[in-house]
Amino acid sequence: MAKMTYIKAITNGLDQVLQDDPKTLIFGEDVGKNGGVFRTTEGLQDKYGEDRVFDTPLAESGILGMSIGLALTGWRPIPEIQFMGFTMEAVDSVGGQMSRNRFRFSGDVTMPITIRTPFGGGTHTAELHGDSLENLFIGIPGLRVVTPANPYDAKGMVISAVENNDPVLFMENLKLYRSMKDEVPDGHYTVPLDKANVVREGSDITVVAYSAEVNEALKVADKLEKENISVEVIDLRSLSPIDDETIFASIDKTHKVVIAQEAQKMAGAGAKVASDIAENDIMSLDAPIGRVSAPDSIFPFAMAENDWLPNADDIEAKVREILNY
Amino acid sequence: MAAKSKHVVDFAKIKSTMSDPYKKPVQVIDENGKIVNQELFDQFSDDELVTLMEKMVWERALHEQTMNFSRQGRLGFYAPTYGEEASEMGIAHAMKKQDYLFPAYRDLPQLIQHGATVKEGYLWSKGHYQAYDYVRRGVRAFIPQIIIGAQYVQSAGAALGIKKNGEKDTVAYTFTGDGGTSQGDFYEGINFASSFQAPEVFFVQNNGWAISVPRKTQTAAETLAQKGVASGVPGVQVDGMDILATYLVAKEARDFVVAGNGPALVETLTYRFGAHSSAGDDPSRYRTKEQEKPWFDRDPLIRLRKVLTDKKLWDQDKEDKLVAQYKDEFKDAMKDAEAAPKQKVSDFLKNTFEVPTPDVAADIKKYEAKESK
């Protein structure tokens, strides 16, 4: 057990899977000698050699396309796309190709590929770096889309993702990389890819969130506790699939829900959660479903990010609105 | 200002000469059946010449019978291979069982030569999951790719996988057409395989047309063979209507890449005699009979038939019997394809994830209930 940042926890998880399975390969832009532009793969090439951890030419479709060929020849690829905004270049490789192969070949061909990519606002990156593009990927059958919200989950989930025999889009939050430290166990452990986590129990209202918004929700829960308002916070962890069971169990208890996400509101994970509740558990609610999200504009210019991103204040306001309905 | 005199760089000269090394298509027999390179011709035994002819006759018969089925409404999407027999069978003849094949949609004949069945080809056209049963039998081939270009990046990964596995005498093969060379993935695939010095042969079957768009619209480059040079990949043109030349070049390319020299690129000069697909494409909208004529004169079967007939290795009777025999086999294959089991949506759902997600699991139940009625 050691205190680790979110990013070090991922590095530690990658180290573990490289050690456990000689067929795992890490590759992408700058992941070798440089250890990644954020140092997520730091030290791994030195430890496992250039055959296992290597740089590629600069081309995202090439990186994810070659992952398919490597998987076909028996390898377990862990490609990195340097920023989630760059995944736009490789949508066919993900949606048109790797995610369809289990289906195409009736299970005879599997694609155990984990695509790691950093995303998320608040770090004032250049355009098309921090965009939350999960809304684009959660509509792809055959693809799992997951994102950890803390260091413990980051390590356990990256190990689960690599060990999973289907393609997984593993989204790493840029802002959380170095802003969060937590106790992380040594060695091998896993965190399930499809189980939401009740990170804080409460009885008056449920806030469903993921990634950095989980921390914003926890701030709200802390603050409202002083007013004797008990907020339950659920970290989705997985955006595709959504773990409805955990959400329904919570709202059956609290009867109120607010769904918070950093991404735009249109066609996203929050919309799926709201739709699942509306379809299957609406009678548990005694107030409308509350939504907190970024507005449906293009991801903003860096200097305006903080005006655009939803934060604890936005969640608090929505929680109060739903509580007072 | 300096006086206007010599160019600093003579771009015009570079442009006018840059394609020169690539504009020498390898040829063994010309369109009149004349042996133009005796030394290369002498590499073939009589048996091998007959085998190559038989393969082209097989592909032509497959095309004819498949078009019949298509007209009868018994097939879905089919991309005619008429005219490309030398290119496709010449390359297929150079492949070995252990090679990985990444075909595109017009490459079903090579896929079948590599171990898929005609029945599977028909099921692919009709849209049935058993089309891909060849993988279950250990045939090293991917799907006939629809997203043109994707096969280039995927096969580059397979070539790297072969190299990392330490498999000797094994290559990845992929195909596209002249239109495919315009895709970004085309270049990315060649460049990746080159960067990794992986064992791959990239084929461009330049049949002159991407549906209605002529080759010259795809690029101002004079050849497609030169498309490799920017990635450090040697390229060559071959007369794709000459199966002897195509086979020898494909074999040479294979020998070169398995020796660890990195990938190679081969452009076969061929022609799509028919439509782009059996689904409503009408070539008379975009090309004339006069434009087609010189290519029909280069029909790959005519020239080898003449050579073999002169050598008393072939006659029309033999060919007619073969065609009849092949067509009977294709008819049987079609019957088998038509007897394929009804597909179940519940099976598709079961093959979406290894461990079904809750939504998928619920759908499996729903569809199993429907299907049991």
Please name the CATH architecture of the largest domain in chain A.
3-Layer(aba) Sandwich
- Tell me the series of helices and strands of chain A, N- to C-terminal: EHEHEHEHHEHEHEHEEEHEEHEHEHH
Q: Remind me, CATH topology of the largest domain in chain B?
A: Rossmann fold
Distance between the termini of chain A: 45 Å
CATH architectural group of the largest domain in chain B: 3-Layer(aba) Sandwich
The CATH topology annotation of the largest domain in chain A reads as Rossmann fold
Structural class of chain A: alpha/beta
* Portion in strands of chain A: 15-25%
Helical/strand content category of chain B: alpha/beta
Q: Treating each run of at least 4 consecutive H or I residues as one helix, how many helices of chain A?
A: 13
Strand order of the largest sheet of chain B: 1-2-3-7-6
Biggest sheet record of chain A:
5 strands, mixed
Q: Work out the helicity level of chain A.
A: 25-40%
**Rg calculated over all Cα atoms of chain B:** 23 Å
CATH class of the largest domain in chain A: Alpha Beta
User: CATH homologous superfamily of the largest domain in chain B - what is it?
Assistant: Thiamin diphosphate (ThDP)-binding fold, Pyr/PP domains
Number of strands of chain A: 14
Subunit structure (chain B): Heterodimer of an alpha and a beta chain.
InterPro entries (chain B): Alpha-ketoacid_DH_E1_comp (IPR050771), DH_E1 (IPR001017), PdhA/BkdA (IPR017596), THDP-binding (IPR029061)
Domain Dehydrogenase E1 component (chain B): 54-345
Catalytic activity (chain B): N(6)-[(R)-lipoyl]-L-lysyl-[protein] + pyruvate + H(+) = N(6)-[(R)-S(8)-acetyldihydrolipoyl]-L-lysyl-[protein] + CO2
Walk me through what this model shows.
Chain A has 325 residues and is of the alpha/beta class. Chain A is built from 13 helices and 14 strands. In chain A, strands 9-11-10-13-14 form a five-stranded mixed β-sheet, sandwiched between helices. In chain A, strands 5-7-6-12 form a four-stranded mixed β-sheet, covered by helices on one side. In chain A, strands 3-2-4 form a three-stranded parallel β-sheet. In chain A, helix 1 (6-20) packs parallel to helix 7. The longest helix of chain B has 26 residues, at 46-71. In chain B, helix 3 packs across helix 4 and helix 6 packs across helix 14 (316-338). Chain B has helices spanning 11-17, 38-41, 46-71, 85-94, 108-113, 118-126, 133-136, 150-165, 184-195, 215-218, 243-258, 289-297, 300-310, 316-338, 345-350, 358-371; strands at residues 100-102, 172-177, 200-206, 209-210, 213-214, 235-239, 264-269. Chain B folds into two domains: 25-277 and 287-341, Rossmann fold (3-Layer(aba) Sandwich), CATH 3.40.50; 342-373, no CATH class. Chain B is an alpha/beta fold and 373 residues long. The chains are: A alpha/beta (325), B alpha/beta (373). The interface between A and B is large, with 46 and 43 residues.
